[in-house]
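Weekend entry, working from home. Most of the wet-lab plans are on hold until the incubator is repaired, so I used the time to fold the two sequences that have been sitting in the queue since the last round of cloning. Logging both here for the record. First:
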Amino acid sequence: MSRTCAFSNAPARTKPSEQRTMHPALRNQLTHLDGALVNLLQERARLLASVEADDPERHPRVDDLLRRTSGDFDPQVLAEILDAVERGTRP
């Protein structure tokens, strides 16, 4: 039986024979970060509740954010996430 990603129905990348149990401390950190992300997204939606959907200032400044970021996260995927955040906060 194959595992699935927690956020999609896509199969996990590891084979069942290669699966290892995640360390509980790492799982706790990830759970904390997931909760913080959700709280920040809810706060963004709350702040935008009174802003008209066609106001150009409500959209994330993706180009600037992507220029200033560094790390392992694919910039194109970050752009897609920010686009989804915008779609999720439209009135």
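Second, folded right after the first finished:
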Amino acid sequence: MFTQIDIERAKAKISIKGLAMAAGMKYDTLLSKLNGRTEFTRKEMLSVQAAFPEKVPLEELFAIDTGQKSA
């Protein structure tokens, strides 16, 4: 759902579990938010952003992938 988070995780070689630990979140909570079952709070978004070595703007990091491709 959050493609850019997956891209940044791959670049930084961070697992979802590692991201959860770095962001100070429980693994299940982060997984639920990444899958779109629950929403991120602003504080959580900032924590996830801070977990990556490169600063990616929140708007880009949390852009929702709709799964539609442009023509």
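Plan for Monday: verify the second prediction. The CA atoms of residues 49 and 55 lie 7 Å apart.
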